[in-house]
Amino acid sequence: MTLDRDALIIQVLDRLLELGCTHWDTANVYGDSEELIGNWFKRTGQRDKIFLATKFGFHPDGPRGTPDYAKQCLEESLQKLGVDTIDLYYVHRIDKNTPIEVTMNALVEFVKAGKIRHIGLSQPSPATLRRAHKIHPIAAIQVEYSPFERAIEQKGHLLETARELGVTVVAYSPLSKGLLTGQITSHSDFSDTDLRKQIPRYAQENFPKILELVDKFRQIGRAHNATSGQVALAYLLALGDDIIPIPGSQRIEYIEENFNAAQLKLIPEEFQTLKKLVDETKIDGDQYPPALQAMLYVDTPELP
Hints:
Blueprint (H helix, E strand, L loop, with lengths): L4 H15 L3 E3 L7 H12 L6 E6 L10 H15 L4 E6 L8 H13 L3 E7 L3 H10 L2 E7 L13 H8 L2 E5 L34 H16 L5 H11 L4 E4 L5 H9 L7 H13 L9 H4 L11
Helix pairs in contact: 1-2, 1-9, 4-5, 5-6, 7-8, 7-10
């Protein structure tokens, strides 16, 4: 018997709980993921076992952080998820037209109402993070962070700012959108509908450097009977206890592989070898197509 997609997703969520992977991250723009998680909560009654994070802020006209829009999105997410409270609610992209204080004040009201427990920001600038943190403690920032994407270390010292303020860094796309698994060996491997085909950094001329770095991770992995992807996750984990990688997958075998990466402990020599390699490998090009790249590390207007 072939299971339909929804049934397969339910199996994946069941396995996540069995493994102890209980930090679940979604967003109101990730297709029907909120509804699927909500169905799982309803079926299992295990909402209390999950640390649930979702996001708002994307809009057809560009990132929107107005109080009315935040409230609308929150109520829709609560309904889809079938929950009373969201553990961590992120601003998905920063609205360059709305002072971050205005957005934060709305989110603080949601905290007071018991509808969210913690506030997060995704891809903020250091200045935006500081201003938001003055209104209410920011629990986490979510940024793309991997051996191929290290802007957080350079963009106005966002990583340094987060650590100064005690803000956890949740690293999305820690496997560089799958490239660090070694399954992609050429730009031509991307289908015409694959967003990665439009990413300047993944242009064909960059693949020799990409594959060289992946091979080095694979070589380190052989000593641990581990894959290049597992080594990449172990590398991020070794950067600090405040770094939480969240690799995404819909296949149980890959979820189990990623989970087991947490048991992989790089010896100091291996970590330093990888760090030197990552530091010395320069891959040109932005991490997103221009329209999406413009939404990263955004500052907002000052309050009048």
